[in-house]
Amino acid sequence: MDRIKPRTLSGFMELLPAPQMQFERMLESLRTTYSLYGFTPLDTPVIESAEILLAKGGGETEKQIYRFTKGDSDLALRFDLTVPLAKYVALNYGHLTFPFRRYQIGKVYRGERAQRGRFREFYQCDIDVIGDGKLDISNEAEIPSIIYNAFRSMGLERFKIRVNNRKILTGFYDMQGLGDQSADIMRTVDKLDKIGPDKVRDLLIESGVSREAAGEILKFIAITGSNQEVLTALEGYRGRNETFDQGVDELATVVKYLAAFGVPEENFAVDLTIARGLDYYTGTVYETVMLDHPEIGSICSGGRYDNLAGYYIDKPLPGVGISIGLTRLFYVLGEQGYFNEDMVTAPTDVLVLPMTDDLAPAISFATLLRTSGVRAQVYGEQKKFKAKMSYADKLKIPYVVFLGEDEISQGVVKVKDMTTGDQQALSPEEAVALIRASKEKLAQQKPIQEKQA
Amino acid sequence: MDRIKPRTLSGFMELLPAPQMQFERMLESLRTTYSLYGFTPLDTPVIESAEILLAKGGGETEKQIYRFTKGDSDLALRFDLTVPLAKYVALNYGHLTFPFRRYQIGKVYRGERAQRGRFREFYQCDIDVIGDGKLDISNEAEIPSIIYNAFRSMGLERFKIRVNNRKILTGFYDMQGLGDQSADIMRTVDKLDKIGPDKVRDLLIESGVSREAAGEILKFIAITGSNQEVLTALEGYRGRNETFDQGVDELATVVKYLAAFGVPEENFAVDLTIARGLDYYTGTVYETVMLDHPEIGSICSGGRYDNLAGYYIDKPLPGVGISIGLTRLFYVLGEQGYFNEDMVTAPTDVLVLPMTDDLAPAISFATLLRTSGVRAQVYGEQKKFKAKMSYADKLKIPYVVFLGEDEISQGVVKVKDMTTGDQQALSPEEAVALIRASKEKLAQQKPIQEKQA
Hints:
Two copies of one chain form a homodimer. Chain A is an alpha+beta fold and about 450 residues long. Chain A is built from 16 helices and 16 strands. Chain A is elongated. In chain A, about 45% of the residues are buried.
């Protein structure tokens, strides 16, 4: 037979079973966290009409999109989950209850140039709260709490959620008479971390900002300190611009509710240099950086916007949302050695080894285990004992249960703890209780384990 | 602004939040059941090289596939999860531990003519056990148990798993000297339910089968009764063909282990008319029909095959697997009114209504709820009381908690049970316990509820 060499396309992540299990645990953490905050799961098609997906059009999106025809239809694969959400809300406006809180975890597609750590198919894990006409600031205050718990539930601890408010920036540039240039200025200021304040000043002046205004900008973005210190410094600018004042009020509200939402100060920082590139955002904006790997960039970003679905419906639909690019995050965590090597990634909690020709007793015991919520596999292959044990070893299965003539006649099972090597004869009920307790303990393991600094 | 009319492509299922929640519960049931049997989750790309996906080539597949180019690449969307599994196992052969047990739940794509109940994007929920060279019959015996528990966990009870063994059929036709025609004959016999035995006899004779052989075939496929009765009848044919005898042994083994696997006889039937169209299958084959809706056809099918990945690798990789087409099943269950209308599909277990300007106490209580695993939403919008209650009503949220000045000063929360209308002041801990207990009870609800006959 002519054979075709098996391969997976470059830029597409396909994991071996053990890392896949870690990835699943991360997905599960996100589903659980998002659900705890009352977000409803949503699932939209991967394929949409190209006209719908490209309603906004232009730029990188159009170049990267997977677009093709089938019959007469001009189709494309979704490149994010926001455009499908906008379509969904516009299409089902009359059937939804607002504020509409949804999470969506799904694959999106971008035909980027393939390079290390860049993916053409990747998971986005999004939440959004959409208001009908209005949306209270408390929704913006809640987001850092969700980000905090999402990462903590995976085992990540050393991260900081950076928050700013676009109204503060817009208002500030208005005060300086630079309202028209604010988008350009924000892009320049965004480079602060990379090029430093002097180069930012040069670039600003080069782009036509007066020396005096450039000085004011640098003074402004140099405001740092505790959240309270930054807020106090911002008070000094109050009263000169309405948008600015509103932004400060909003930021103060977000900070105020942090403690009630259970977010410790060390995981949160007001940062006046954060702008998020998109013009789309109009209020609070979020970025999240890993303290030990700032070079990775933001691992969870988002913000408040005023107009989700203007391309599809004549209704003001403000919202706030964030997105985690889980495929890339998983990749960089692996690169940096962040995975918990002790996490049990075995496909089963226990391997039941029948030592008799009749498999019925082993199958009955496995059935009992499953009824108690324990994952159990009966190893029915006709192999040497050593090969059977090697199967359990390779898959790192925590327990092996032997069922031979002796055990069957005595009504017991022999349980081997594969970690300690201990072996004991137990009643079936005792064995189930033991393995179940161990399973519940192992379920507490988190996929990410940071190295102690 | 020029607006584009929002729409979702025809043949693509996109659900409103409440049905989506039911769909999620069904997905969760399958993930849990598959995991309990020691299957490891797998995730492969939606896009593969067209050359890989079409290795087998030919027929309907090629016509229906979504195929397109991006740059120089000839790409296609997967049309099932079996071909990607074959590629995966061939590609990672050296890294996998056999028997390799994997489940995969994912969307697949077929550009079929759009019609009611036909989908172009749909979920397949597959399990397969792959052996390296050999695979024990006990794996085939396990499958009905998995099907049984998968459907039971969703709430479906009135279904029957029909099982046959291809070796019995092949062996029987060999005995009749009809080995060469067996594929054609099986296709004709497959029509028995639709056209009846007389027409089947006519068609067989028309296709060149002798009158006598046609009579034997009809006598054979008329064998019915309890599993034991069918097996006894098959014993009468023993000793004339090796393949046949092996098939009877295998079928007897599958039936023998049913009780140990916890499958009641009423959900299982040996059925000699089942062949499954594909030549691919070589041993046990499975179909599952809804007793009250046989017209829907099989809702879970599969079987034993000998050569998973022959197109990609020079290794014999036998396996056994089944697939549930969840999107179609969900659609027909809805059409037939099978959904549990009492199932709570609310996005949250409790809506916390702050009755003060300061939301901090409400947020703190919601944080406490979430720490206890209860889904909680703080309703922070500035609306009239009636509008807030209407939000809870519309979403069918089971509990509403009020937190006003009085409650805050007394250290209590007021809990309203939205089903009964009862309202009581409780300590925060009591309230958490109450709502949590109710949530755990509601979690026992199953998405499917059959009408009592």
